[in-house]
Amino acid sequence: MVSRIDRKQVVDTALRLLNEVGLDGLTLRRIAKELNVQAPALYWHFKNKQELLDEMATEIFRRMTEPLVHPGSTTLGDTWQDALYASCRALRTALLGYRDGGKVFSGTRMTDESYAAPLDNLLNRFVAAGFTLGEAARGWWTAYNFTIGQVIEEQSVHPDPGAPGFRDPAYDLEGREQRLGARYPLAARAGREMFGDLGRNFEAGLRILVAGIEATASGGGSRRDGARD
Q: Which stretches make up the HTH tetR-type domain (predicted)?
């Protein structure tokens, strides 16, 4: 028996529904209903929800990295710092474009090799600057995981990508200060730093990461030339 829907249709529909129902509400049954097929038809393409999530994450990554694939691309800039900033910013923007995008991406695996070319281009920037491959890989892996974690936290505060101004009431800053202020004044005021301007916090975190990579790499001081934010 051959399914009358293809793998791409399932993934595109799942990504569209994700913004409507979130990760918890995204079920194979719901996707099948949207495609006007019976749920078993989806198992022709995906054995379970995790396999579908893996493909969804891969498709998000494909869409994000398409401009970065070509070795001559200027999207990553001239230096390893440029490349790291550009890659992390692109990843954050891509994941914030989908409700629960950070959670979808976290813990999934790529289903093809589309990640390899942009990763090679990024690592080349590091190696050309004198980093060992190990230093380059660890630097990127740390920044990559920071970005995904930041997005997950950011989407807890602002869960709806279609309404970026909406803040989950659980993250009401004034209420937090009123509850904690008398006994824990520093923790109370820190809430605005942690949960206020999340875009600013992300950029500050990237700068800390770049400084850490520079400081801990062998001969790190020599690699600071061209640092930008």
A: 4-64
What would be the CATH architecture of the domain defined by 1-47? Orthogonal Bundle (1.10)
Q: Roughly what angle, to the nearest 10 degrees, separates helices 133-157 and 198-216?
A: 160
Residues 6+ apart with CB under 8 A from 49: 26, 27, 28
State the DSSP H helix or E strand holding residue 178, giving kind and residue range, or none if neither: helix 173-180
Using only the alpha carbons of the chain, give its radius of gyration. 20
Question: What tens digit of pLDDT does each residue of 64-84 get?
Answer: 887 665 555 567 788 999 999
d(CA 158, CA 31): 25
CATH numeric code, 61-216: 1.10.357.10
Which regions in the chain score pLDDT beneath 70? 1-3, 67-74, 219-229
